[in-house]
Design goal:
The chain is 74% helix and 1% strand. The chain is mainly α. It has a single domain, classed as Orthogonal Bundle (MetI-like fold). It has a two-stranded antiparallel sheet. α2 crosses α13 and α3 packs antiparallel against α10. The two termini are 42 Å apart. Keywords: Cell membrane, Membrane, Transmembrane, Transmembrane helix, Transport. This is ABC transporter permease. InterPro entries: ABC_transporter_permease, MetI-like, MetI-like_sf.
């Protein structure tokens, strides 16, 4: 390496130094610190006390910890299939060349780029027990008495999931639409000439061709379902009686409400392992498929 190359290398290092410092201080150090804190009992103010695996045991085996994990799983069972199916359905609807389809693509995508808090407030009005539009519609149809959508333990979690499905469906639609654009149209035209109906085309041609994108969408949806927070705090605050508290919200609650940083850090690493496990499973399945 000559003098000019060494000079250019020094300039390059000086150019990336601010970004490197930021990465170390605000990414790598907090990750390492949270791992160490997860083995302690610390309330931010006092001195951390080493407690071993107690925080992990509490996060995984205590009644509240088990309830939070079950809520997270139940939320995913509602969110992932609905968001994926609706995203795919909308992608099929807007995958046309008709005039004005760009308007509908934009319309369906708008909720995703809208602030979650703003969407949650709007849905909170619609979910209102006495004056909400949903209960008014059910009353008009004489189908049901007013439902406490956000204060009934049986439906609060589902209500939060439905709001996030409505918000995120447009994003999954765009992903599926990108996959649909890569499908060889001659296969679809040939199937139509052979007399295949729309369902047969979707089932036998489009879905197999979209398998990699479907795997990717399922991965993103499962990750998003595991870390939901904004909708929960805006709609239910985890209630009633922790009925809608998922892992993402429990981490916030333990860290910044109860100031139990050790338990919050342990739950953060549990969440990290869940997301990492899902990603690894997706990678293994993709490798096996290829």
């Amino acid at each position: 390496m000559n003098a000019v190359q060494r000079h250019h290398l020094r300039i390059a290092w000086w150019m990336i130094l601010p970004c490197t410092i930021g990465l170390i201080c605000f990414r790598l150090f907090p990750i390492l610190a949270s791992f160490l804190i997860s083995f302690t009992d610390w309330n931010i103010i006092g001195v951390p006390e080493f407690v071993g695996l107690n925080n992990y045991i509490q996060a995984l085996t205590s009644p509240l910890g088990v309830k939070v994990l079950l809520n997270t799983f139940q939320y995913a069972l509602v969110y992932v299939p609905l968001a994926t199916a609706l995203g795919f359905s909308l992608a099929l609807l807007v995958d046309t060349g008709i005039k004005g389809v760009v308007f509908f693509r934009t319309l369906y995508f708008l909720p995703f780029i809208t602030a979650t808090v703003a969407i949650a407030i709007s849905w909170k009005w619609m979910f209102a027990t006495r004056f909400g539009i949903l209960n008014a519609f059910l009353s008009w149809l004489h189908l049901s008495d007013p439902i406490a959508w956000l204060s009934n333990p049986n439906v609060a979690l589902i209500s939060v999931a439905v709001v996030m499905v409505w918000k995120d469906t447009g994003f999954y639609m765009v992903l599926f639409l990108a996959g649909l654009q890569t499908i060889d149209r001659t296969l679809i035209e040939a199937a139509k000439l052979d007399g295949a109906n729309r369902f047969a085309i979707v089932w036998d041609i489009i879905l197999p061709q979209l398998a990699p994108m479907t795997f990717f969408v399922l991965l993103i949806a499962m990750i998003n379902s595991a870390k939901t927070f904004e909708a929960t705090i805006s709609l239910t605050n985890g209630g009633p009686n922790n009925a809608s508290t998922t892992l993402g919200y429990a981490i916030y609650q333990n860290a910044f409400v109860h100031f139990d940083m050790g338990l919050a850090s342990a739950q953060s690493w549990v969440l990290c392992l869940i997301v990492g496990g899902i990603s690894l499973l997706h990678y293994r399945l993709q490798q096996r498929k290829t």
